[in-house]
Amino acid sequence: MSNSIKFSVVIPAYNAAPFIEKALDSVRNQSYPAFEVLITDDGSKDDTGEVVRRYAEKHPSFPVCYARQENKGIGGARNNGLFRAAGDFIAFLDADDLWYPAKLEKIAQFALQNRTLDVIYHDEVETSSDGTKRILHYHPLRDPVFEHLLFVGNQLSTSATSVRRELAQSISGFSESPEFNSAEDYEFWLRLAKAGARFGHLSEVLGEYLRVEGCVTSRIEYHHGNVFNVVNHHLDQLSQEKAYPESLLRRVYKTRRGQNRFILGMEYCKLGEFRRALNNYLEALALRPFWWKTYAALLQLLLKAIRG
């Protein structure tokens, strides 16, 4: 790696007309100038393409390249940009998220100080639709990283992660399988780790992630079901490879399944769907009977029921 790093900013966009300008502004306002921007319109039904065209005309020096494809899902949209990329690192940015001005400069500095790293991720702010903000700390991953990600859970956010381009392309990018849709980023991190990627955590808040709230039940079930599809897929692979004792893999399965049900229960609790929350907490308890978080969640649910 030379003493300068070029980034390829990969932005998937689907019906992104209302908010993509803010994402593009956050890239254009970067203090670090060495980047290209690769937008993939994933078959939008709104005027996303026209918004991007007008933006490019308004800012002619902004290095943006727009492509449109038939709808493939977010994995396919990211791959379109990923395989057009020419930078040293690919910095992913979802169309409804944004970066702070020093983001790319900080990542470049960190990469030059830690030249063996292949994946660099940072902390970010979660912004709710009502404007409420909270900091998301992602923390360093323990070695071996593949085990940590699979046995403990995902610790990375796509818009807060940059990946060495050659490695990302060598593992064929993101899965486009429907069974991983909305969890394709987690599956991508797992394959990167399994391929030997070295992960580094930059403990700074460098962007904002928009939390989409008010999700319908089917969408919540769909996402968390696909997260567990990723876990199950990789556990099955380990079983076939005979890489770990079956007894360990069964324990991991129960632990991650219980975690999955617990998180789903929390989501339902936020939506006020307390019966669904209770059912998921009880399933989590059956799978992980000694996990204190489930008991605490059940107590909170009981207090909410008593109050009203």
From TrEMBL:
Sorted UniProt keywords: Glycosyltransferase, TPR repeat, Transferase
Pfam families: Glycos_transf_2
TPR repeat positions: 258-291
UniProt superkingdom: Bacteria
Keyword Iron-sulfur attributed: no
Xref: InterPro entries: Glyco_trans_2-like (IPR001173), Glycosyltransf_2 (IPR050834), TPR_rpt (IPR019734)
Keyword presence, Transferase: yes
Residues passing through the membrane, by range: none
Gene Ontology molecular-function annotations: glycosyltransferase activity
EC number per UniProt: 2.4.-.-
Domain Glycosyltransferase 2-like: 8-131
Entry protein name: Glycosyltransferase
Species this chain originates from: Geomonas oryzisoli
